Amino acid sequence: MGINKSMKTTMHYSKITGELLGCSCSLNKSTNLKETKEEGFIEANVSIKDNYVDLNADPPEIKSKPTNPAIINKTTIIPNGIDFTTISEIPNNCVLTVDGTSYTVTDGIFEFSASSLGIYTITLELFPYLSKSFGVTAG
Fold first, then answer.
1. Labelling 11: which of 44, 67, 79, 84 has CA 20 to 30 A away?
2. 81 in helix, strand or coil?
3. What is the pLDDT confidence band of residue 5, given thresholds at 50, 70 and 90?
4. CB within 8 A of 72, min separation 6: which ones?
5. Between the CA of residue 3 and those of 27, 28, 122, what are the distances in Å?
6. 121-126 contacts: CB < 8 A, separation 24 or more?
7. Distance in angstroms (rounded) separating the CA atoms of residues 82 and 125
8. CB contact at 8 A, 88 and 26
9. DSSP class of residue 68?
């Protein structure tokens, strides 16, 4: 008796946002997964971190998350509270986190200064974009 090596992978996604929520695998062609008004399933074997479901496509389809367009003008600043770096082209409503403190950016720009020596990590997150991080050295 041989082993059936064809595995069916089904991705679970939000019908509201297109965010991939998880996956299930089955050796059977049929599964007992039931769609709801808020959640659906699509046959695919992809990374949840790097992909999403495009709800505007008919039928919905898996797509790669786009790169966050944010850019930084410099990654080294003088730790005097006056010198600063600017992150621009930030998508509206992006959540920006600096060493554990979060801000929602609504105007596309974030200016960062520091009074203490150190390396600061600034992370930007907004679905469906890939997360983006910048390291800023104050010193």
1. 67
2. coil
3. low
4. 85, 86, 87, 122, 134, 136
5. 10, 12, 49
6. 122/72, 122/87, 122/96, 122/97, 122/98, 123/96, 123/97, 124/68, 124/70, 124/87, 124/90, 124/94, 124/95, 124/96, 124/97, 125/94, 125/95, 125/97, 126/68, 126/91, 126/93, 126/94, 126/95
7. 27
8. no
9. P
pLDDT digits (tens, 9 = 90+) for 60-82: 999 999 999 999 999 999 999 99
| Amino acid sitting at position 122 | I
- Token pair 């297109």 is found at 18
**Going by C-beta distance under 8 Å and a sequence separation of 6 or more, which residues neighbour residue 83?**
77, 113
pLDDT tens profile 21-34: 998 887 765 557 78
Token reading at 114 = 């520091």
Q: Which domains does the chain have, with CATH numbers?
A: 9-64 (no CATH), 71-138 (2.60.40.10)
- DSSP type of residue 71: E
